[in-house]
Amino acid sequence: RPRSHTVTTTSSSFTANLSASSSTLAYDREFLRTVPGLLMVTEIVLGLLVWTLIAGTEYFLYPAFGWVMFVAVFYWVLTVFFLIIYMTMTYTRIPQVPWTMVGLCFNGSAFVLYLIAAIVDASSITKDLDNHNYNSWAASSFFAFVVTSCYAGNTYFSFISWRSRTSQ
């Protein structure tokens, strides 16, 4: 008996929505040309320096450096995450999230905790601890203060953005 060679295809609404949504994902090149974008890239690069300088030492012997590592790695990962969100303009696709408030809270908390971590880092460095780790810890302390100032700048810009959204 001969078989029928008819093929029927169907398209679900989920598939149609998925293909439509993925084609509208944008890439915002101009974000990296703004001051907040430049600060965010600086936070990522110098934040990476902070935690790699500490990670290359025996930081686990000193609890203070463990705290600095936690703050540096935690905010480094979140900053990379937010950079991807801003670069792909994902925030426009999720309007239910108050992105200006999220940015303000993120940058404000990063500023405060990075400031504490930078102070802890700087105050924990002594020649008495371990001489071969001294330079790495001193450099990480310097870069932690630079990253703190970048987060302070982004907190300011986030506040300005939040303020202009709430006054409308």
SSE ordering? HHHHH
* Sheet with most strands: none
- What is the arithmetic mean of pLDDT? 85
What is the general shape? elongated
- The domain tally reads 2
Estimate percent helicity: 55-70%
Report strand %. under 5%
Distance between the termini: 74 Å
Q: How many strands in all?
A: 0
Note the total helix count: 5
Alpha-carbon Rg, integer: 23 Å
Q: Structural class, from secondary structure content?
A: mainly alpha
Name the poorly predicted regions.
Answer: 7-22
Give an overview in words.
- The structure is a single chain.
- This protein is mostly helical and about 170 residues long.
- The protein folds into 2 domains: about 25-95; about 100-125 and about 135-150.
- The chain is about 70% helix and about 0% strand.
- It is built from 5 helices and no strands.
- The longest helix has about 35 residues, at about 135-165.
- The radius of gyration is 23 Å and the shape is elongated.
- The chain starts with 12 loop residues before the first helix and ends with a helix.
